Amino acid sequence: MTPPNPPPKNHERLEAPVLERMLKGILDLRRFTIIPGLIEAIAIAMKILAPSEYNFASGTCAQHMSLNPLALIACLISVLGMIIRLWCYRTLGKFFTFQLALLPKHKLVTSGPYAYVRHPGYTGGILAFSGATLANATRGSWAYECGLVYSVWGAAWVLLLVVWFGVSVERSMREDEVLRAAFREEWEAWSRKVRWRLVPWVY
């Protein structure tokens, strides 16, 4: 999930909290979720295509990899999250930026996914990364069979993911305050109609 638009100019951005800036500096969730899947794909290809004596997967933990129904469900969750995220990109157009910002001639968009929750972009991101993490952590995956899931690395990944979720929720609250200050009555009317920030009938 790469930015659909160039980053806003410095004077258009709103300053992010220290924790959010630190998290962005030390963690690229895309790489952390893609790399285990990429290693797994290479191991599977080697098992199928390469003779066993030249296969790094043969005789290692990777030989126990298998397809798990839970991993398929996790992949579907991740795909659903990406679809929601892309829907947000298309609906917001030039107003969708990874940095919290108010752009020139900014409009309050209330159509598309924004007719159901006020911050569906975060919902999509959480679903996408949760699904990818679950797929990499289920029995039969490379990360599970090679012991990464129950290692210090696995615990650190879960901790960082939980912190990232918390930052996303906090940022959705800040975004509400920014939009309320900018659009006043228009935002109030929208928030009365669309009561939920991230999940319909839940939050």
From TrEMBL:
<keyword id="KW-0472">Membrane</keyword>
<keyword id="KW-0256">Endoplasmic reticulum</keyword>
<dbReference type="InterPro" id="IPR052527">
    <property type="entry name" value="Metal_cation-efflux_comp"/>
</dbReference>
<protein>
    <recommendedName>
        <fullName>Protein-S-isoprenylcysteine O-methyltransferase</fullName>
        <ecNumber>2.1.1.100</ecNumber>
    </recommendedName>
</protein>
<dbReference type="InterPro" id="IPR007269">
    <property type="entry name" value="ICMT_MeTrfase"/>
</dbReference>
<keyword id="KW-0489">Methyltransferase</keyword>
<dbReference type="GO" id="GO:0005789">
    <property type="term" value="C:endoplasmic reticulum membrane"/>
</dbReference>
<keyword id="KW-0949">S-adenosyl-L-methionine</keyword>
<keyword id="KW-0812">Transmembrane</keyword>
<keyword id="KW-1133">Transmembrane helix</keyword>
<comment type="similarity">
    <text>Belongs to the class VI-like SAM-binding methyltransferase superfamily. Isoprenylcysteine carboxyl methyltransferase family.</text>
</comment>
<feature type="transmembrane region" description="Helical">
    <location>
        <begin position="70"/>
        <end position="88"/>
    </location>
</feature>
<dbReference type="Pfam" id="PF04140">
    <property type="entry name" value="ICMT"/>
</dbReference>
<keyword id="KW-0808">Transferase</keyword>
<dbReference type="GO" id="GO:0004671">
    <property type="term" value="F:protein C-terminal S-isoprenylcysteine carboxyl O-methyltransferase activity"/>
</dbReference>
<dbReference type="GO" id="GO:0032259">
    <property type="term" value="P:methylation"/>
</dbReference>
<feature type="transmembrane region" description="Helical">
    <location>
        <begin position="148"/>
        <end position="167"/>
    </location>
</feature>
